[in-house]
Amino acid sequence: MRIVITRVNGTADMIKFLVQPLATCCMRSLFAAAVNVIAAPFGTLSATEIPAVPVTAIVAHTETIDRVINGIGTVAPLQSVTVRPRVDGQVVDMPFTEGQMVEKGDVLLRLDDRELLSALASAKAKQAQDEAQLNSARADAQRYVALADKGVASAATLEQKTASSEQYAAAVQYDQAVVENAKTQLGFATVTAPLSGRTGFKQVDVGSVVSASSTTGIVTITQMDPIAVSFVAPGDRFGEIRHALVKGIAEVTLTSTDSSRTLAKGKLTTLDNAVDTATGSIHLKASFDNKAGILWPGLPVATTLTVEKRSGVVVPDKALARGRDGLYAYVVRSDATVEKRAVKTAFVTGARALVTEGIKDGEQVVMDGQSRIGDGAKVSVTPWSGSPIGELTEEARP
C-alpha cells in the first residue's frame, strides 16, 4: 500500500485529498465485478455443451478410376494428297467445288483428249495392219511346209517363211502394248480422287494448260474420317504407355484447350521408335472417328491418355489437407466428432484421389470447414452438394 503525505491548503484541497482515493477504490471494485459477470457463463460450460462446428462432408466410395497422362496435341490427317495430272493438256471440266467432300473415284478434272484419242486410233490401226500381215505370213508358211514335204520347196525357203511369220507375230504383240499404253494415256485425261476426303482450294481453272511436271498440282484432298491426333508424352513414362497399348486400354480423350468441352474419344495407335533426346519426350499418335467433322487438321487440342485402370476408395482431392507429415483428412465418426487421419494416395485424376490408406468405403470425409476443426472436434454435418471432384454446383454457388 502506497501512502502519500501531502499538505492540505484550503477547503478545495481538502476535498480533493479525501475523494481521490475513494474514487480509485470504487473503480477497481466495479471492474472486478464486470469481469466476474462476463466470465461466469463460460466457466460453467461443460464439454457436451460446446457448440458443434458446421462442416460439409462427402461419402467415400469404391470406384474404378483411370490413371492418365495429360498433354497438348495437334489434329493431323491420316492421309493428305496433292492431286497432279499424269499427262499434259488443257482443262475442259472441273466438276467439283472447293471444300467439297469427295469419294474415292469421283471425277475432279477432265483434259482435252482429242490428241490422245487419235494416238489410240493410230495404234489400233497399226495393230490391225500387222495382224493382217501375220495371217498372210502364217498361211504362206503352211503352204511351204506342204511343198517341202513333197520336195518342191527347199528347207531354206521354208525356214525363211517361218521366220517371217514369227516376226509379224512379235510385231502384233508390240502393237498391242502400244494400244494399251495409248488407252492408259487416254485414261489419264480424266483425273479422279485417289481417296475420300475434303478438297482444298483449286490450283487451276477451266481453260488452263496443265503439265505432268507441275509441282502445285490441281487440288489437295485431306482425309477427314477417321482422323489422327499427334501429341507427346514424357519419355520416362514410356513403359506405362507401352503396357497400356499392349493391354488395349490406351484410350485418348480430346478436349478443347480451355477444357470447356470434350471433343472426341479414340485409341492410341502408334508410338515413335525413339525418345527425343533433345526434349526427353516421345511422339504418339491416336486415331478418332470424325463423322461429325468436329476435328479439323491443324486444330490444337488437349489430350488425356489412359495408362492404367484401378479400383479403390475415391474422394475429391479437395477433401485432403496437406501438413508437415503429408496428407491427412478429417473423418466423421458416429458420435458426430471427427478423427484426423493420415492418408496415402496412389494418384490423382481429374481432382479425384485414389486412396490406398486412411479412408474406408462409406466413411464421411470433411470437405469444407477443415480449418475450423481439430482432432476430436464436435461437428454439425451437412452433406456435400457439389460435384464429385469438389466443385460447387450452380445451385450451391453464392
TrEMBL record:
The keyword Phosphoprotein does not apply. Residues 377-398 are annotated as: Disordered. Signal peptide: none annotated. Pfam families: Beta-barrel_RND (PF25944), BSH_RND (PF25917), HH_MFP_RND (PF25876), YknX_C (PF25989). Residues 80-222 form the Multidrug resistance protein MdtA-like barrel-sandwich hybrid domain. Residues 226-307 form the Multidrug resistance protein MdtA-like beta-barrel domain. Gene3D superfamilies: 2.40.30.170, 2.40.420.20, 2.40.50.100, Helix hairpin bin. Residues 120-188 form the Multidrug resistance protein MdtA-like alpha-helical hairpin domain. It is found in: Cell membrane. Keywords: Cell inner membrane, Cell membrane, Membrane. InterPro entries: MdtA-like_b-barrel, MdtA-like_BSH, MdtA-like_HH, RND_pump_MFP, YknX-like_C. Residues 313-381 form the YknX-like C-terminal permuted SH3-like domain. Belongs to the membrane fusion protein (MFP) (TC 8.A.1) family. This is Multidrug efflux system membrane fusion protein. It comes from Rhizobium tropici.
